[in-house]
Write a structure and sequence with these properties.
The chain has three helices and seven strands. With 132 residues, it is of the alpha+beta class.
C-alpha cells in the first residue's frame, strides 16, 4: 500500500535511515507492507520547477518509484527532482541510477563526516513512465 500525507512518521523513518531530520513544510510518500514502512520519500524545498527529494528504502518497488515521480510532476508541477546521497552510500547511488537520475556534483562535508553527491532527475529522463 502506498500512503501519502505530510506524515511525521514517514519523515522520521526516512530521516533516521539517512541521518537527517525534517522540519515542516514537507510531504511524504511511503510503501507500507504489513503495517511497516519499507520505503519512503520526503519532498521539501519546493521551488516551483524543482523539489528536493529524500529517499530511504529497505526494498524499492517500481510502484513506489512511479508514484513518487508522478507526485513530483503531476501534483507539484515540477519538471525535475533533486536528490542528495552520501558519497559512501553505493546502494543509494545505484537506486538513483535506476531512477534515471544523473550525477550533477559533490557537496563537500554536507553530512559532516561525509560529502554529498547531488543528483538531478528530469521529467523526460524518468525511465519508467508516469502511468500505471
Amino acid at each position: 500500500m502506498i500512503v501519502s500525507e505530510p506524515r511525521a512518521d514517514i519523515a522520521a523513518w526516512v530521516g533516521a535511515k539517512i541521518g537527517v531530520s525534517f522540519e515542516p513544510p514537507y510531504t511524504a510518500l511511503a510503501h507500507v507492507d504489513r503495517g511497516r514502512i519499507i520505503a519512503g520519500y520526503v519532498f521539501n524545498v519546493w521551488t516551483e520547477h524543482d523539489v528536493e527529494v529524500s529517499l530511504a528504502a529497505d526494498r524499492l518497488s517500481l510502484t513506489l518509484m512511479r508514484a513518487a515521480f508522478r507526485y513530483v510532476v503531476q501534483q507539484l508541477g515540477c519538471r525535475r527532482a533533486t536528490f542528495r546521497t552520501r558519497a559512501d552510500n553505493a546502494q543509494a547511488q545505484k537506486a538513483l541510477d535506476r531512477l534515471g537520475a544523473k550525477l550533477e556534483g559533490r557537496q563537500r562535508g554536507y553530512f559532516g563526516d561525509c560529502d554529498a553527491l547531488l543528483y538531478g532527475l528530469m521529467k523526460e529522463d524518468f525511465p519508467y513512465g508516469l502511468n500505471a
